Amino acid sequence: MKLKTFLALTLMGTLSATAQVTTDTVTTVENARRVVVTERDSVVNVEIFGNGTDPTFRYSYSKSVGKNSESVVRQNSDNWDFNILFGKKKKEKRESNKWQKELGMFGLAMGWVAAPGMPDGLHSKMGKSAEFYFDILNLNFQRRHHALTIHTGFYTASLRHEGKQLRYGKNASHGLAPEAYPAGSDPKFSRLFLTTNYLGFSYRYTFRHEWFVGLRTNFHYAWRAKARSEYSLAGRDFMEKMKNIRTNRFSADIIGQVGKDYVGLYVKYNPCRILQDATGTDDSRRIAIGFTLGF
Q1: What is residue 229's DSSP assignment?
Q2: 107/109 Cα distance (integer angstroms)
Q3: Cα–Cα distance between 111 and 286 in angstroms, integer?
Q4: Where is the secretion signal located (predicted)?
Q5: Do the bridges between strand 146-160 and strand 186-206 make them parallel or antiparallel, or are there none, so unpaired?
Q6: What angle do CA 224, 253, 174 make, to 5 degrees?
Q7: Nearest CA to 281 among 163, 126, 173, 166?
Q8: Same-domain pairing of 61 and 179
């Protein structure tokens, strides 16, 4: 990709007796290979290496500035910004009338989840059931206070059975079904684990002082579901795992957010069934509340 680098440096100096403003210096370089800007002991130095097809090109500029002087350095590449670990949005972007593009990495949401409508005997306990969203990449388009973002990542949830009389099991079609613990055993817990990949779309409006509200939807593709149960029997501890539980491959959720900077709260509703169960006993719409970081 063609890299265009525009570097502007304005230096203003004051004398003890008479105020004097220096002439602006502007240098334009196409396809610079390297730009180094340093400021030390009131001296600003700019070095540029490479210019277009001339790899031997070198430009160097130094200026001594006073205490009241001001130096501004800007660098951009085709109007793109790149943030890692949910970097803050710049104020000048919100004041621009043009759409700014930004590529980011790493967003996180974690919360407590429940699935009302699960088959009788397999209801999940919200206080001990958790979910996690991991944004791997996001593409952000921002104009003034508005932001539209495309997200991609993966989601995982752990639903803990709320009682100890039954556990998660499979029916003949590999769908989830209630199952009794072995006779005489002391049940500990039973959990259902879900993992999906998702593609998300969100809108966010930012108010003064970095407060924001947002609405987001994620389209999920489920690729793994398993269950694990633990119990004691005759003085021994047992852990049983079941894999390849049939799930509804495609689902979608709706998330509302409110927060400040890159930290927020969210509420979620997923109207889609978890399981691919021919018996029709699963009506497990998921609800959740939690926290977000750059999500």
Answers
A1: E
A2: 7
A3: 12
A4: 1-19
A5: antiparallel
A6: 30
A7: 173
A8: no
CB 176 within 8 A of CB 227: yes
DSSP one-letter string for 101-158: EEEEEEEEEEEEEE-TTPPTT--B-GGG-EEEEEEEEEEEEEETTEEEEEEEEEEEEE
How many residues are present in the chain? 295
Please indicate, yes or no, whether residues 111 and 181 belong to a single structural domain of this protein.
Answer: yes
Q: What span, in angstroms and rounded, lies between the C-alpha atoms of 266 and 31?
A: 43
CA distance 136 to 2: 26
Average pLDDT per block of 10 residues along the chain, 295 residues long: 40 40 62 76 79 79 68 51 51 63 87 80 80 92 90 92 76 73 86 92 92 95 86 88 81 94 93 65 77 90
The CATH number of the domain holding residue 250 is 2.40.160
Closest C-alpha to 46, from 83, 72, 82: 72
Residue 244 placed within a domain: yes
For 49, the domain range is 31-66
- Provide the residue type at 244 as one letter: N
> Does any domain span residue 91?
no
Say which DSSP state 272 is in: S
